[in-house]
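Quick one, T. Sequence first:
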Amino acid sequence: MAQTLDDLPPRAALVEIAHDFHARGWMAGTAGNLSARDDDAHFWITASGKPKGRLDENDFLRVRVKDGEVVERARPDNKPSAETGIHRTLYTLFPDARACLHGHIVESCLAAERVKKGAKGLRLPPLEMIKGFDIWEQNPKVDLPAFENHLDVTKIAKAIEARFKKVPPPLTALLVRGHGPTVWGASLQEAYNRFETLEFILRYLSNPHRR
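Structure tokens:
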């Protein structure tokens, strides 16, 4: 039995994450996408339109980081996820990133409503859980980068690239308004842990009983 997600081959680990996230309501239906580097030059990503609760190791494409070219399809009819460009952008900007996870969480949409139109971030509360992002300051003031949603996902990818090239994000996560969070990490297990951490913080923010 694998001790961590990093003990599994990339696609097997992503299948396990997909089933887990689906069971928690974070990847309802075909929503969301997951990827992991196969090597420094390529990554595996979930194919478009696949039910995440029934995902298997054939529901992936292998994509080249340099130009986004699909170099392998586990099934001939697999089509790239609309968010492939976002994953590629993050792998290009952050070469140490080995996994990238994107889900659709109710609490993230509710928390994003706190972001004023045109604002670039959502101030996170200084909860103990923020240490999951290796932020060890006392009462840290950390803004989760926030982006506007677009039907044309390439616009989101370009906005991420433009902003993060100028100013690196304070944590390995971002939020798209009315859409959901994306988290990346130096390993599959780290990305998974950080996604859980962010979900906890966003759930706290969206709690109607919070004072």
